[in-house]
Automatic annotation (TrEMBL):
<feature type="binding site">
    <location>
        <begin position="13"/>
        <end position="15"/>
    </location>
    <ligand>
        <name>biotin</name>
    </ligand>
</feature>
<keyword id="KW-0436">Ligase</keyword>
<comment type="similarity">
    <text>Belongs to the biotin--protein ligase family.</text>
</comment>
<keyword id="KW-0804">Transcription</keyword>
<keyword id="KW-0678">Repressor</keyword>
<comment type="function">
    <text>Acts both as a biotin--[acetyl-CoA-carboxylase] ligase and a repressor.</text>
</comment>
<keyword id="KW-0092">Biotin</keyword>
<feature type="binding site">
    <location>
        <begin position="41"/>
        <end position="43"/>
    </location>
    <ligand>
        <name>biotin</name>
    </ligand>
</feature>
<keyword id="KW-0067">ATP-binding</keyword>
<feature type="binding site">
    <location>
        <position position="37"/>
    </location>
    <ligand>
        <name>biotin</name>
    </ligand>
</feature>
<dbReference type="GO" id="GO:0004077">
    <property type="term" value="F:biotin--[biotin carboxyl-carrier protein] ligase activity"/>
</dbReference>
<keyword id="KW-0238">DNA-binding</keyword>
<keyword id="KW-0547">Nucleotide-binding</keyword>
<feature type="domain" description="BPL/LPL catalytic">
    <location>
        <begin position="1"/>
        <end position="179"/>
    </location>
</feature>
<protein>
    <recommendedName>
        <fullName>Bifunctional ligase/repressor BirA</fullName>
        <ecNumber>6.3.4.15</ecNumber>
    </recommendedName>
</protein>
<keyword id="KW-0805">Transcription regulation</keyword>
<feature type="binding site">
    <location>
        <position position="109"/>
    </location>
    <ligand>
        <name>biotin</name>
    </ligand>
</feature>
Length: 246
């Protein structure tokens, strides 16, 4: 992964650039990075603040031979890779995952991933997994008070290139588990190990409904299993609801 590397000093969005490269037949595993983005995009149509010199903005292009319904797991795979990469670089800091794929450090968000996909019939043409990591950020805008960086957590700067290389190393490790589609149990065990919501009370917010329950971990589709007070276990799909700590 990342052996074909495209780097920008400045671009609109690495996801947009990765999609353009995909249409021009760029190879599987191409990684697009930029020092800053003018149109950085986050999940749920939000903007992703992308100033220069301090963060990682990267998008990985994949052409996996899987059914589109399994592609949502790829976002989780990147979250796992980023969490493990941060933990290795920081020497045992406890980065974890807030379901589905925010990476958190000391309870605050340090990284997010936006995955986009192009399909033809029931086949995937390509997937772009775009990740932002707050590395050396010292100050966030007021509205991002739930954000943190490696620098704020550790008190010193880190080399972004080193963290990107570690992310690719761990992505390869987890992607190999993901490719064993007949048995995802090892991948799911690793994800649940990193899941900060696990065995915690969570509040599930879905349109017109709100309840609390115990988060148990994820299933094969990456859905969060939540046990309600009446004992029923719900499977929560990330696109429909959000989950908060209680
Ligand atoms: C989120 O909302 O948590 C996802 C944020 C994803 C941001 C990254 S930065 C690199 C890539 N390019 C984009 O425009 N977005 C993703």
């Amino acid at each position: 992964m990342g052996k074909s590397l495209v780097c920008f000093a400045d671009t609109d969005s690495t996801n947009i650039q990765a999609k353009l490269l995909a249409e021009q037949n760029a190879p599987d595993g191409t990684l697009v990075c930029s020092d800053q983005q003018t149109k950085g995009r986050g999940r749920r149509g939000r903007a992703w603040d992308s100033p220069p010199g301090e963060a990682i903005y990267m998008s990985l292009l994949l052409r996996p031979d899987i059914h589109p319904e399994h592609a949502s797991m790829l976002t989780l795979v990147m979250g796992m890779a980023v969490a493990d990469a941060i933990n290795e670089l920081m020497g045992g800091e406890s980065a974890g995952i807030k379901w589905p794929n925010d990476v958190v450090l000391k309870g605050k968000k340090v990284s997010g991933t936006l995955t986009e996909m192009s399909t033809e019939m029931d086949c995937i043409h390509y997937v772009v997994i775009g990740t932002g990591i707050n590395v050396n950020t010292q100050k966030f805008p007021k509205e991002l008070d739930q954000a943190t960086s490696l620098r704020l957590a550790a008190g010193h700067n880190f080399r972004r290139a080193e963290l990107i290389a570690l992310c690719m190393k761990y992505f390869e490790k987890y992607y190999a588990l993901f490719e064993r589609t007949e048995d995802l149990s090892l991948l799911i065990d690793e994800y649940n190990r990193l899941l900060v919501n696990r065995n915690r009370e969570v509040r599930v917010l879905e349109p017109g409904n709100e309840y609390t329950g115990l988060a148990l971990g994820i299933n094969n589709q990456g859905e969060l299993l939540v046990r309600r007070e009446n004992g029923r276990v719900d499977e929560i799909y990330a696109g429909e609801v959000s989950v908060r700590g209680v």
